[in-house]
Amino acid sequence: MNTYNFRGKAPIYLTIVYALLIFILCAEIFPVLYIIMMSFASKQEIVTRGFFLIPRQWSLNAYAYLVDSSNFMQAFRSSVTITSVGTVFSMLMTTFMAYGLSKPWLRGRSVLNFMVLFTMLFSGGIIPLYLLVMSLNLLNSYWSLFLTGAIIPFNLIVIRSFFQGFPVEVEESARIDGCSEFGLLWRIVLPLSLPVIATFSLFYAVDYWNTYFNAILYLSDGSKLPLQVFLRQMMNISDGSQEVTESGIEFSPAVRMAAVIFTAVPLLVVYPFLQKYFNQGALLGSVKG
Length: 289
Fold this sequence. Notes:
- 71% of the residues lie in helices and 0% in strands.
- The protein is mostly helical.
- The radius of gyration is 25 Å and the shape is globular.
- The two termini are 40 Å apart.
C-alpha cells in the first residue's frame, strides 16, 4: 500500500493555516476596534474626518451622556434585573427538573424525557404562546420573560446527564445519615456540580441579557424595556452627526458606539470569573450522557 509523505509540505500547510487564521482574527478585531475608537471621538471630529481608526482628540462625552441619560440607565437597570432574576429562576427550575429526571425510580420518567426532547424539535408557535401569556395576565410583566424562557431543553438534558453520572454510593451514604432528598441535592450534589451549574448559568445569563424579541412582544411599558431594545431604537435613527428623537434625546454616532460598548462590557466582565468552569462544565454532562 502506497502512502503519501506529507512531511516535506507540512510547513507550507501550516503557513497557509496560520495566515488564514490571522486574517480571520484581524477581520473580527477590526470592527470591534473601530467601535471602541469611535466611542472616544468627539462629534466635530466624526463630522470633519469621516472614516478614521484613531481619534486625534480623545473624549469621554459619549459615555458621560449615556450615564446622564435617564432612559438609557433605566434600560440598563431593566436588563440587569431581567438577567439576574431570570438566571436564578431558570437555573432553579432546570436543576430541580434535571435532578428529578435523573432518578430511575421516578414514575413517568420516560414520558417526561420524551416531552422535553419533543420541544427541541417542535414548538407551538408564536401566536399560541402569546395567547397563553395574555390569558395568564402576564403581558407587560417580567414574568412573561421568565416563564417563557424558564427551561431550555438542551441545558436540561446536559445537566440531567451529569446528575445521572453522579456516584450512587455518595447518595446512599447521605440517605443513611438521614439526609432528605432536597438536602442531598442542596448540600452534596450541587457543590460537587459547580462547573456545570456555573457554565449553564452563564448560558442563561447571555440569553436573558440579549433578550430582544420576547421583550418587544410581551412588554409595552417603555420603562421595562431592556437595553437591547433601547439600543435597537438608537440604531434605527438615520445616520448623522446630530440626531434628535421625538422625546428630544440626541444620539450622535459616538453615543451609539458607546452604547454598544456598554451593552457588551457586562458579559465580558463576568466571563473571566466563570472561564475556569466553562470547558469542564460544558463537556461533563455531554460525555456522561
